[in-house]
Amino acid sequence: MSAEITVAVNGALGRMGSTVLSAVAAEDGAVPVGGADIAAVSNTVDVSGTSSSVPLAPSLSELFQTVTPDVVVDFTNGEAAKEAITTCISSGVKVVSGSTGLSPEDLDEIGRLAAETGVGVISASNFALGAVVLMHLAGIASKYFDYADQLESHHEAKVDAPSGTALSIARAMIEGRGSRFEQNVAELQTLADTRGGDYQGINIHSARMQGRVARHEVVFGALGQTLTLIHDSINRDSFMPGVMLAIKRVINETGLIVGLGTVLGFDKP
Questions:
Q1: Which residue in the list 82, 94, 136, 154 is annotated as catalytic?
Q2: Is 216 annotated in the active site?
Q3: Which of 57, 112, 180, 240 could make an S-S bridge to 62, C-beta 3.0–4.6 Å?
Q4: Reduced to 3 states, what is the DSSP secondary structure of residue 142?
């Protein structure tokens, strides 16, 4: 490995992929060396904010015929994400993935492959450091409150609801509480599904709209009081410090890490 960590981006033509390429170019100790995108129509992609470009291919397997990076950053979803991650593992390339739609079974398979090959993978539902802190605090607060609602809102093009981060927050809440929450069940719903989705007694509500990047809000309720935790990502730059931390961590890993909390040390006593 060179002194600088070489990084390629899967989904390089998307808004997040373009932001990652620029962030890597600006980061000390890292350098962008390529991109892959199913929509590729040329063999290079410009790195925004710089005068340089890097090789581009329609798939990671084709990109690896030209350049083999130390790390691939992947922001796709579902089956495409799983395919991208397994392609990297089989090629000996470490992965930082913010992809949504990976099932627990997918992560189990990825973890097994990563351990067998000694290839580091970090998979996180959110790379905004404040959102990861919110997730940690929500887990702590859950043992002290009986009721909880979660509201998440994202841009209008987001394909999944609720968000992967919302589900990760809910799981952290249940883990912290050790049991499901108490829950109001409306005797009469004059509009179906108004109470949102039910996750172990947590009502989760999803909004999709222009003007929003990502917002997560958790409201806890107990006798005579409420506690509200809110995190807003104003733009995609908010995710980049977390991505850079993950790139520098994964280079020394030999298996799967799920969640950025581990990178920040929240799993330590």
A1: 154
A2: no
A3: 57
A4: helix
